[in-house]
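Sequence in, structure out. Go.
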Amino acid sequence: MSVITNAEQKKEIALVQRKVNDIVTKAEDYKVIKSQKQLEEAIVVLGEVGERQKLYKARIEGDIIAPIKQGLNNLLAFVKPLKDRLAYAEALVKDGIYDYRESLKKKETEKGEELTKKVEAGEMNVHQAAEQLEKIERKSDVIPVRKVRDIEITNQKLIPAEYWVIDMVALRRDALAAGAPEIPGVKVIIREIIVKQ
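Output:
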């Protein structure tokens, strides 16, 4: 299924694609630079790459993709209440089932204790007690459950350091802030990157 149905959009994409392909072909000549002249040419080509990136951003991302994303976001916002209502309905039913299941478990435990006392007192034999307990167990067997393995943190201090995640955004922001105190284990470095002119 094609998202782009507008012939004008297809032309626009084809134009940008040609310009991108042309600059990629040019850029491939500068994978290995062996002279000052070639370096100067490469800097010019790098500027042209930047122009093509701006063209892509404006015409493809801005004119074509942005409206599609906005339309999708509007649609998702429009139907979100339906999704939320379904989640609410599911939670209501699951909570009801869970509460009933818990009450059956409680009855099962209480009945088991009661039947054990009767068997010990000689008021009932083991076979009769088992039959009565089985009736309660059958009720809880119809409730659909799935067992999943999960974890619960009991003491955060005991968790090994390899499981802790560093918040790089906050760390970088705080370490690079003007007048920030030095953060143990962090060193501010200056890295050179090639820029387009």
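Check: The chain has a mean pLDDT of 88. The chain has one domain: 7-144+158-176.
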